[in-house]
């Protein structure tokens, strides 16, 4: 897999590139936001994942993420020292697919890279089959991965859509956290649990329906079908 590493610290980049190369990745190193954006022209240039450090010298990392998402659907994993939920939700709203908080374990980083790449390779292949879910004002089109609320299209990341679609196919049914992680992230790695919480929070905010996804304490989540 080709991977774009956006990191301004050459020492960090060299060490990480060596680790990634040992695990079969073909790494391209960009030292600034502008270098990253140039590498992604046109259409992502065949990269499987973008690993984006937020501490860049020329542009704010969040801004770079937003620009990347406008150019390509290539999965983006943010690397940040900001561990608060608000910062992570902001990154997800800009189109990031996942995040890793510094300092991170290399095994954790590799697990997240493989998780987003596996999910991308398992994108819905049911194109041409008109499958729609309607839950009150929420309209979900599975083949086109389009979500709207009261007719207004809501921009979701791939994982946000997969999470919503999973819950929406069985309204009222409680999905265990382990089951959601297995089906959406395609991994059993326990560290993904915090990512799940952030994605749920992001969905509630984007849909402007905080009661749509109910937390079942100690078990998981379920979608509460709205009236109307």
From TrEMBL:
It comes from the Bacteria. Residues 130-225 bind DNA. Keywords: DNA-binding, Phosphoprotein, Transcription, Transcription regulation. The modification 4-aspartylphosphate is found at residue 53. SUPFAM superfamilies: CheY-like. Residues 2-117 form the Response regulatory domain. Residues 130-225 form the OmpR/PhoB-type domain. PROSITE patterns: OMPR_PHOB, RESPONSE_REGULATORY. It holds the Pfam family Response_reg. This is Sensory transduction protein RegX3. It comes from Streptomyces dubilierae.
